[in-house]
Amino acid sequence: AYLWAYAAGAFEDTKAVVYDFCDSRAGEHAKLFLGDWRGHLVCDDFSGYKQLMTQGVTEVGCLAHARRKFFDLHASNKSQIAHS
Predict the structure, then answer these.
(1) Cα separation of 6 and 4, whole Å?
(2) Any idea where the domains of the chain sit in the sequence?
(3) Beta strand pairing status for 2-7 and 40-43?
(4) Of 14, 38, 62, 66, which sits with the fewest C-beta atoms within 10 Å of its C-beta?
(5) What Å distances lie between residue 81 and 66, 67, 71, 74, 75, CA to CA?
(6) CB of 37 within 8 A of CB of 27?
(7) 3-state DSSP of the chain
(8) In Å, how far are 21, 23, 48, 49, 68 from 32, measured between CA atoms?
(9) Inter-residue contact 29 to 20 (CB < 8 Å)
(10) In the prediction, which pLDDT does 62 show?
């Protein structure tokens, strides 16, 4: 089972987090939950979100995941650019 979490943006009037308990990680759960919602979705690069991106949702990448790639690059190659 999976627990999907949805939170309002930092600048929204409504402050809320909603947890949606589902039986799988299939992207159809996010699509069903979000319905016709359009906006910016902060998420990792999970393929289950990709169908949403073709329907008016804008993907905003997760900075923790991006940082990890720079860390890995520095750790494996001692890249000075990745270190900065």
Answers:
(1) 7
(2) 2-83
(3) unpaired
(4) 14
(5) 14, 13, 11, 8, 12
(6) no
(7) CEEEEEECCCCCCCCCEEEEEECCCCHHHHHHHHCCCCCEEEECCCHHHHHHHCCCCEEEECHHHHHHHHHHHHHHHCCHHHHC
(8) 13, 13, 12, 11, 30
(9) yes
(10) 77
* Token representation of residue 19: 């947890």
Pull the structure tokens for residue 77.
Answer: 């190659």
The amino acid that residue 4 corresponds to is W
* Tens of pLDDT, residue by residue, the chain (84 residues): 899 999 988 899 999 999 999 999 898 999 999 999 999 888 887 888 888 889 899 988 777 777 887 788 878 888 777 666
pLDDT for the residue numbered 83? 67
Closest listed residue to residue 27, CA positions, set 43, 9, 8: 43
Token representation of residue 70: 């720079």
Token output for 74: 């520095």
